[in-house]
Automatic annotation (TrEMBL):
It comes from Cyanomargarita calcarea GSE-NOS-MK-12-04C. InterPro entries: Chloroplast_ADK, DUF1995. Residues 5-208 form the DUF1995 domain. This is DUF1995 family protein. It holds the Pfam family DUF1995. It comes from the Bacteria.
Amino acid sequence: MAELPKTLEDAIIQAREATQVAIADGYTRLQVELLFPELKPMPVAEQFLPLFEQYGDKVKILFPDAGGAALAKRDWVDVPFKMSDIGSGRTATQMKIQPEDKIFLVVAPTAVEVLQLEKLCEEIGDRPVVILTPRMEDAGTVGIGYTARETRRRFISTIESCYYLRPVDDETAVFRCYPGMWEVWLETNGEYQKIAELAKKPSGDELDAILMKGGQTLGDNPIPIKKPSVFKGLQRFLKALSS
């Protein structure tokens, strides 16, 4: 079973392996979530590319806008994959998806691009789509009304989260590495320890309940919760992941 990664490089390696296993198991809509506000998606995406080498030039990489695609074309030397942007409108969507494309990587889409991304996935059909470092559930996105929220909810429900890593507060992290279960990790005595396993992603209330009980361990002895010291544990965790 996967352990909580100690570095960003470890997390990306885990994410590539989890994605590969999920594709082999038949999943076609996947997402990899590294939920750190400070994390820049382009370096993560570049380190994620080795997963697709087996597909040769049959890979299509899509960015939220033309600027992102142009930046990748400039900076990613000797990358053989085709690159484009998500675009807008049904005609643009159809033009971006070609019969020879075998697998797709979508880098850092936001809630604004959900409608177009859904159209793209309809055109793609049963070919694999990997959504990397999305921000589609950003509740703070301006201009997202009820219909857009429902579209986002419906679309996200069709995606398998094959890798998920999110610090919840200064001492707690939620982690999932396919095919493993969803896990809650807690910093205790300077080390992160797994305190709970769940079949589904824990809601805020479920996570609060786990922490209120002091953690549901895999054994019989619960781990006591320490009084949090604001941001200290989270800062250490982010520093380790960025090293």
